[in-house]
Write a structure and sequence with these properties.
glyoxalase III activity; seven-stranded mixed beta sheet; alpha/beta; lyase; Rossmann fold; 9 helices; Class_I_gatase-like; EC 4.2.1.130; D-lactate dehydratase
Length: 233
């Protein structure tokens, strides 16, 4: 009998622009393409977003990845993954079907997934089942308000990382975001936020129990490898 592949729920943002400035945002190409490249032969994927349908791809991330063959292949051969997402409302309550959830970044999650009730329910239920929760760059914004059934933050007391304040200022988004991701991750984790020693573009992945977080696009491959390790594939 052939063992079934683990199933990974990928949650993408539906936010396509900064509400105050209109600056285009979305999900970040390499932060999905790189982990997907590592995992897609070993796992089954289900894609969801708050609004369903096509999840907005940050075009700046496409321009940054023009010379990346993995990103190019993902764009050319796997576009249905983000163009035909399920609504999160249709996925919430079905966590028994999944072995892990993964939140790629891009600035979008800072504006919708940070407070999306269906995403928060999914995280609560998966955490209760001790299943793998992974998030990258701005993806950890989805975790900062997520609570257990007992009302504690799921990252309380856990080591975490995510895009830092220096990076926000470097790329000119510090005035666009409504909160400091670094600050809120540090607060909700109880001072457990960590970042790369060599600046906002350095690789940093933190694994603490069933929670895997990566700081930035440079950490995408490592997050993919840690997801594979956690799933035993």
């Amino acid at each position: 009998m052939v063992a079934s592949k683990p199933r990974i729920l990928v949650v993408l943002t539906s936010a396509d622009k900064v509400p105050t400035s209109g600056k285009p945002i979305g999900w970040y190409l390499s932060e999905l393409a790189h982990p997907f490249h590592i995992l897609h032969d070993k796992a089954d994927f289900i894609f969801a977003s708050p609004k369903g349908g096509e999840a907005p791809l940050d075009q700046a991330s496409v321009e940054m990845s023009m010379e990346d063959p993995v990103c190019k292949n993902f764009l050319e051969n796997h576009s249905s993954t983000w163009k035909k997402t399920q609504r999160l409302s249709e996925v919430a309550g079905r966590t028994s079907e999944f072995d892990a959830v993964f939140y790629p970044g891009g600035h979008g999650p800072m504006f919708d997934l940070v407070s999306d009730p269906h995403s928060l329910r999914i995280l609560r239920d998966l955490h209760a089942e001790n299943k793998v929760i992974a998030a990258l760059c701005h993806g950890p914004a989805a975790l900062v308000n997520a609570k257990t059934a007992d009302g504690e933050y799921i990252i309380q007391g856990r080591g975490v990382t995510g895009f830092d304040d220096v990076g926000e200022e470097m790329f000119g988004y510090d005035k666009d975001v409504a909160f400091s991701l670094q600050g809120l991750l540090n607060e909700r984790s109880g001072g457990k936020y960590a970042k790369a020693d060599n600046g906002p573009l350095g690789k940093k992945v933190v694994v603490d129990g069933n929670v895997i977080t990566g700081q930035n696009p440079a950490s995408a491959y490592d997050v993919g490898h840690e997801l594979a390790k956690a799933l035993g594939i």
